[in-house]
Design goal:
single chain; 87% helix
Length: 266
């Protein structure tokens, strides 16, 4: 009986070893990537190239997502507000919802689907074709060359994309207010801007994208660098990167919201 119980515990420990080791490797990679920001060389050309791929490349999908998120929010909130005779507050709810919640989360998910998968597939292809091993043989640090530029670029561009998405979403709400709610432009935009407070809402709306950017870039790079199994492994790493980054975005969104609510800033 004791031997059986010991065997069950040993089997459970064996099952836990791989997930724990993966989490450890992820944090080690993240720590090294952040440390490399303050070390030379910085590979500025790679950073600007990734900023173009991640930022400019994701501008269209972020804009479309933000516009329809704001339009849908205006339609939904106006129906509820009309019950209480407060339809004039539609701009307030659209503004707060986009800046605090929908803007950062939806933009991060869109960028994750487009770029976390791209990072994982690109680095995974380099890994299975032994290009990363060749970089090490030539004395180049793959993490400094490949991971850190993607981290810096994502952390720079995602907050900017979120700002654009938020503004376009407010414009989407304004169009709905004009076409269906009979709200004047002055009333709508006045309630939109008055709803936002400095620095609480602004910091809250921009801190989330920075955290999400670290998750998106590091998850994509992590799964790309640990790719094995040829082309099938590349596809598997791509899928895992998108799923893992999306789940982590929702988890971190809950945690950050709880922190800010506790601090009285949300």
């Amino acid at each position: 009986m004791l031997a059986l119980r010991f065997g069950d515990r040993s089997h459970l420990l064996d099952l836990l070893k791989a997930p724990v080791a993966s989490v450890q490797d992820f944090f080690v990679l993240t720590g090294r990537a952040i440390r490399n920001i303050f070390r030379s060389p910085h590979y500025g050309d790679d950073i600007f190239l990734q900023m173009d791929i991640i930022g400019v490349g994701s501008l269209g999908v972020a804009t479309i997502t933000g516009f329809f998120a704001g339009a849908v929010m205006a339609l939904q909130m106006s129906k509820a507000l009309a019950t209480y005779g407060q339809i004039s507050k539609t701009g307030t709810l659209v503004s707060l919802t986009l800046v605090r919640e929908l803007g950062p989360v939806l933009t991060a998910i869109m960028v994750s689907g487009r770029n976390a998968s791209g990072m994982a597939s690109e680095l995974g292809s380099m890994k299975v074709t032994e290009q990363i091993d060749a970089m090490r043989a030539l004395g180049t640090d793959p993490e400094q060359k490949l991971v850190t530029p993607r981290l810096v670029a994502t952390a720079t561009m995602l907050p900017l994309l979120t700002i654009i998405s938020d503004f376009v979403g407010m414009c989407g709400g304004w169009i709905i207010a004009q076409l269906f709610l009979n709200l004047s432009s002055k009333m709508y935009w006045t309630t939109v801007w008055q709803a936002l407070t400095w620095p609480d809402d602004i910091i809250f709306g921009l801190l989330k994208p920075v955290v999400f950017a670290v998750v998106i870039s590091m998850v994509g790079c992590y799964y790309g660098l640990r790719t094995t199994g040829g082309t099938q492994g590349v596809g598997r790493s791509t899928t895992q990167a998108v799923v893992a980054s999306t789940i982590l975005i929702f988890i971190l969104d809950l945690l950050l919201t709880k922190v800010f609510v506790g601090l009285g800033t949300a």
